[in-house]
Amino acid sequence: MAQLPGGSFLMGTDYEGAFPDDGEGPVREVTLDPFWIDRAPVTNALFSKFVEETNYRTEAERFGWSFVFWSHIPQNRFQELVEDTVAAAPWWCKVRGTSWRTPEGPGSDVSSRPTHPVVHVSWNDAASFCEWSGQRLPTEAEWEYAARGGLVQKLYPWGDQLRPNGKHLCNIWQGEFPREDTGEDGFGGTCPIDAFPPNGFGLYSMTGNTWEWCADWFSPSFHGTAVSTNPSGPPEGDAKVMKGGSFLCHKSYCNRYRVAARSPNTPDSSTSHLGFRCARNG
Q: What is the pTM of this model?
């Protein structure tokens, strides 16, 4: 973990390309106490240790299925494995037998991906891991402060240009979403947590690769009137905050790999592009 000093920073954005319904703005000054945060998302190897010690079963394992991106399912088994798709986003397929152990469905495994972030973990699963490890999920404010790496109001952890000098600094989608990912950044799915350089705080994978759960309930407007010191979101809600974007984010559809971007998901949801990292008090 990295120990961060906290203090005041400018949270949110007035970026014109933001999604109004996400409630990324207004920009507001937020003050945080010092805290610790994982240098990288929780990996398959570490989550496996948790499962081995506790016999924990994730919600995807208990439900018997999870969501897999369509092009990651073997085409010769597509009809066999896919039970349904999401009407508003048909590239998301309900695949029975999918879990963190089998991220692309039956026949897949994570044996060759020990340093990739664990996926197909719900918010509830992440909270259970934190209880085991003596940690907690970061608040949205803590996560964003950490992702900024000491920079002020920049779009990304390294500045305002997505590819400075033409260099890829995160794992996102290249090509035409959702039909073709050219993999110009070297990856067509998740990648090792340290595949790209860390930010100014020494934290890896704050942009792209996998979405990360935060502790807060999601609201597009609550933060505009909330307290400015150690904010923790509204007291209740239907969905939790996710931050960071994923390997599926592309400017044409999900321009949410910016540090201020945010998105909601229900606490029992799991997908092949959603993971987490942990925090604890300073």
A: 0.96
